[in-house]
Write a structure and sequence with these properties.
4 helices, alpha+beta, 5-stranded mixed β-sheet
């Protein structure tokens, strides 16, 4: 089985490792977000910062949006944390974002531990609503 967005994920996580190695743990999330944005630029990782993503309910777009820390390569949600450990709630949050925004891959990255912690989270596809949602997302992105 192929790993979804393998090369792209590798570059994103590599950039996060550089940031963590450079400034370590102990800062607020906003510091890591700014530093990671600079590293994405240096590493030629295509990204958008604080992207409002549409949320769908039963195939209909809601007026509320989810603000992703980053969307990289137009396909990967990157959610940052600066906490002492990643909890199941953090993972559930990203999985909910993936499902609601109809993205397939999310990277949860935590700068708050002594070593960079990250997790790849993949959404299971909901075939019934997929075609409608993808069409609406493509219209929204244009």
């Amino acid at each position: 089985m192929d790993i979804l967005y393998k090369d792209e994920s590798y570059k994103i996580i590599g950039a996060a490792m550089i940031v963590h190695n450079e400034i370590g743990s102990g800062f607020l999330e906003a510091v890591y977000q700014e530093a990671l944005e600079k590293e994405f630029y240096l590493q030629d990782v295509p990204y958008k910062r604080e992207v409002p993503l549409p949320i769908f309910y039963k195939g209909e777009m809601l007026s509320k949006t989810y603000i992703a820390d980053f969307v990289c390569y137009d396909n990967i949600i990157v959610e940052l944390k600066a906490v002492s450990f990643m909890s199941s709630e953090h993972k559930a949050q990203v999985l909910n974002y993936l499902k609601a925004a109809k993205f397939e891959l999310g990277l949860l990255i935590n700068f708050g531990e002594s070593k960079l912690a990250y997790e790849r989270l993949v959404r299971e596809k909901d075939q019934q609503m997929e075609r409608i949602a993808i069409k609406k997302i493509n219209e929204w992105r244009e």
